[in-house]
Design a protein that fits this description.
The complex is a heterodimer of chains A (about 350) and B (about 525).
Chain A: E1 3-8, H1 12-29, E2 33-35, E3 40-46, H2 50-59, E4 67-73, E5 81-88, E6 98-108, H3 116-120, E7 130-133, H4 139-145, E8 151-154, H5 162-172, E9 177-180, H6 181-184, H7 187-196, H8 200-203, E10 209-217, H9 221-235, E11 238-245, E12 248-254, E13 259-267, E14 274-281, E15 286-292, E16 295-301, E17 307-313, H10 318-329, H11 337-347
Parallel strand pairs in A: 2-6, 3-4, 3-7, 4-6, 7-8, 8-9, 10-13
Antiparallel strand pairs in A: 1-5, 5-6, 10-14, 11-12, 12-13, 14-15, 15-16, 16-17
Chain B: H1 9-12, E1 29-34, H2 39-54, E2 62-68, H3 74-88, H4 95-103, E3 105-109, H5 118-131, E4 137-142, H6 148-158, E5 169-173, H7 181-194, E6 200-202, H8 210-220, E7 234-242, H9 251-276, H10 285-297, H11 304-310, E8 311-317, E9 319-321, E10 324-326, E11 344-350, E12 360-366, E13 373-380, E14 400-406, E15 410-418, E16 426-434, H12 435-438, H13 446-456, H14 465-484, E17 490-493, H15 500-506
Parallel strand pairs in B: 1-2, 1-4, 2-3, 4-5, 5-6, 7-12, 8-17
Antiparallel strand pairs in B: 7-13, 8-11, 9-10, 11-12, 13-14, 14-15, 15-16
Helix pairs in contact in B: 2-3, 2-13, 6-7, 7-14, 9-10, 9-14, 10-14
The chains are: A alpha/beta (about 350), B alpha/beta (about 525).
Amino acid sequence: MDDVWAEDDTTPAAIEAALRRMFAQRHKEERAYVPARVMNMVVVVEKEFRGEIENRLERVGRFHPSRLILVLVEPGRQRLAANVRIGTDDAPRAGAITVGRERVELFVGERHVPKLDTLVDPLMVSDLATMVWSPHRHIAAVDALRRLAQIVLIDSLDAPDVETALARADDLSRDTYVVDLAWLRSTPWRERIAATFDSPRRRQELWRISGVTVRHREDSLAAGLLYCGWLASRLGWEPGPLAQARGAWNGFAHTRRQDIRVTLQPVDQNAPGLAGVTIETDSGASVSLNRAPGGLCAVRRERDGTERSWIVMGASRGEGGILGEGVRQALLRDPTYRPALKSAEAMVV
Amino acid sequence: MAVDVTPDLQALGENPLIEGLERLPVPATTLVIFGVTGDLAHRKLLPALYNLAHEGALPERFNLVGVSRRDIPVEEFRDMARQSIQKYSRREPDPTVLDGLLERVHYVGFSFNDVPAYTRLHETLDRLDAEGGGKLNRNYYLSTAPEYFPVIVKALKAAELNYDPDVDVRCIIEKPFGVDLESARELQAVVDHVFREQQVYRIDHYLGKETVQNVMAFRFANFMFEPVWNRNYIDHIQITAAEDIGIGTRAGYYDSSGALRDLVQNHMLQLLTLVCMEPPSSFEADKVRDEKVKVLHAITPPTPEEVRRDTVRAQYTAGVEGGEEVGGYLDEDGVPADSRTETYAALRLEVHNWRWAGVPIFLRTGKRLARKVTEIAVQLKPVPHLAFQSHGSVGVQPNQLVLTMQPNEGVSLSLGAKIPGSSMRIRPVNMEFLYGSAFMSQSPEAYERLILDAMRGEATLFTRSDEVIAQWSIIDPILKAWAEDAEPLHTYASGSSGPRAADELIAPHRWRGL
């Protein structure tokens, strides 16, 4: 059961007072009620697409952040309005705590966007990490909130082109920690390639890689570039610019020892992200990973031409799972994203 | 002159791709579970393996070979495994992933003491190696009744399955590791004869629980507690593992075990070591375990006189559980009418070292108590001078820090606070951190973590041989003294907080309320 408060023509101070009052009341009625205190999550959306974003957040599941501040941008709106809702997902159980959730819907007009930080700041829980996400790429709103946010959630696949996507991620990562859903889509692929070369016998082959081919959904070039950027930054390759020809991007990365051919190929695929990866070595051996039911299909070709294939088990996370993972990653730190991003940028110069 | 200290990963032979990954690579492995049709495998191990497969955490090349005494076709075993996973997995199984996992499941049926039959296991493992294009690490998980542990270990050696120069061979041994000091030493002697210590992973699944690991994080990642974490500021410590249910259908096991063996010898002494250990210089397995063993060695095994004075054992009698009338322990199915097995144990221990000398540590565990709770309560000493004696004040209570493992995982600190009003009246309030409200991810089951760690050769969360022997050295004199004691057992009503004798044991302190 949720407690609800709503007011038109309101102010941040009135909303904050309502939140405090509702929390005290809830705690009085239900001693076992504790507010979830994972972080503040500020989501900026166009009001007309609100339903779509709410569905996506719903699919994140029960591990959503504590205080959700949903900023709904409505063209022409002059005055603020707000709905506040606090409640719990689960019914109270004897001897157990009930973890609460708090949600503020803040209706703003375009004129409010440049000063959005002054509206949102009073509504946030102090001393918690704050993550900002603008799935409709409301860049001005995100920039206005940057001083409040430690984390910005982005999806580089949403940008109009890959150069813009990578430049924006780079700019944001100067003063915030960027969680990029395009990067998270490649996590299983990075884990599997790391595992493929982990045995001491295979590890030396990392330094003999001569070619990388990444297959991706057409709109997921940024994910493919970040993947190549990851390999380049981890293996000390100097990335060279890629050229586009017949839909594919081709080029070379360089080491003192040899050049590495880099190819990004768009393929038909339902899910966004990567579809396959092939890594070749100068000995003629190769390893490929491709999407398959129940995981990834791995094919290893030895230098004598013999081939073996097997399924690497793992369930698809789906787009809901990716967003959930993005929220979870907000409180972790991946030191390899920024170097991968830098290398990826160097490939699209 | 500047020196370039950036490590050359190529020269070091390290894998540069694992940096930043949450899931580290696991070597190709065949996991052999002995006792695969048993309850533990059914409820915990098979569902844990499914969840690892679901998350993509199992190695690329992985096989599971089930071994049990039943001679059944592999298809029948796969059906059993499917049902176990569907019933007990913490998440709804994905049919494709489940099918993929079951394709890698194999079965060999033979009696564990049939040494020649182990050649069939050998052949199966060799065949799986050949099909997999190379040798896989071999992990043997002993999930059988404990009397078969030495039998299986010896047979593995006889079948030359205990060592392979090309791959890692490991033996994971479930609890209990022995039933007393002598049997633990005997088992250890057998294990020593067959495996090197680095190959042996003794499971205490408590150590795989997130909240238990958090005891170390709490102590060693927060500077504010270390200055008071000693005899100068701590009055006493209480460690409680209470259950609100009876023994259920486990009479066969429980009546030969009892509360002391079931929980105190392993789980509760592990909690004690985590609370009392010195900070390790690093979190490498042996550095952590060295510090834990030092704590156990600093607990002097009690003399018979000390056992009489510092321990209490009791059995539950009829009472009320969850609003329902329930019978006593002696009324349970399968329990002998003259059983003297304790369903409750409380003891007072002391760690004789510079940090803890003189600080009593009270342990209590029991079945069918008022509430299910596992916690460590650290009671600080009272303030040296009480300035607030205002009339109507509850008074300044000593601070108490409580680390709760279950059910409401978290940390709570009691503080004195001023009651609003014109006079200076004080009452205790709680400052609480709750896992459920501060973290988003669903914790994996302890067995998922432990199976993965064993496959990776990461031993921090497993008990070392000297640790197990040290635990038994503390418990064995109590078992012996209790065995010789003909006095009637203490009793406590089902649904109560335990026997009155336990209150006398802890006096002048008091147990925390259940």
